[in-house]
Amino acid sequence: MENIICGILILLGAIFTFIASLGMLRMPDLFMRMHAGTKAGTLGVSLILLSAMLEFSIISVTTKAIIAILFFFITIPIGAHMLGRAAYFINIPLWKNTVVDELRQYFDEKAKSAE
Amino acid sequence: MISFFHVCLIIAAALLIISVLLVLIRLLIGPTLPDRVAALDVISILVASIISVFSIATHQAMYLDIVIALALITFLGTVAFAQFIEHQLGHHKEE
User: Fold this and answer.
1) Is A3 close to B3, i.e. CB distance below 8 A?
2) Range of the domain at A21
3) Residue B60 contacts A, CB cutoff 8 Å
4) Is B24 an interface residue toward A (CB < 8 Å)?
5) Is A86 in Cβ contact with B82 (below 8 Å)?
6) Within a 13 Å sphere around the CA of B11, how many CA atoms are in the beta-carbon half?
């Protein structure tokens, strides 16, 4: 029974990371690509680490897996936020069918005040 | 007799390897530098997943240390690349 739960968790994690990489390849825009890659990738690797935690059932492995999951949940969004901010500041082109860009009005003002 | 657990492990490993190949295409054709940095970030997540699956398959709990170290190094690399893009390339654009 425990093996079946572990196998289902591993399979779910692999499917989520596969969706993340498919989005990385197919999305038309840098920000959409990061939206697909970081969130689904974080969920996938967390599910696989959760499965490792269930599979070993030792206190040291459980601690390591919890630390790794917490670390992924903290660091990957911070890295994606910094990268997206930098990419917006050097004027990476948006998708041609983008409807609204709410940062643009604040961004012009900030660039003037920065000069 | 192959159990359900081993089938899950094999399918997961195959899916992860295909995912690495897909993101590698994005790393090669990515039009700008932030695309490539984002692709490297996702590749590091995939490598962490592969190491975790390998650790489960071989019953070696020691490999989970590598996952923590890899997450740390990748975070530092992404932050350094973001700072580089924002400061260096932004100034060149203004001149």
Assistant:
1) yes
2) 2-114
3) no
4) no
5) yes
6) 16
Residue A85 CA to residue A91 CA, distance in Å, equals: 10
pTM: 0.89
Answer yes or no: are the C-beta atoms of A40 and B49 closer than 8 Å. no
Q: What is the CA radius of gyration of chain B?
A: 17
pLDDT digits (tens, 9 = 90+) for A36-76: 989 999 999 999 999 999 999 899 999 999 999 999 999 99
Per-residue pLDDT of chain B (95 residues; tens, 9 = 90+): 788 999 999 999 999 999 999 999 999 997 889 999 999 999 999 999 999 999 999 999 899 999 999 999 999 999 999 999 888 776 655 54
Q: How many distinct structural domains can be found in chain A?
A: 1
Residue B20 at interface with chain A, using a CB cutoff of 8 Å? yes
Please give the residue range of the domain that contains residue B45. 4-94
Q: Choose among B1, B83, B64: nearest CA to A83.
A: B83
- Hey, how many other C-beta atoms are within 10 angstroms of the C-beta on A84? 19
ipTM surpassing 0.90: no
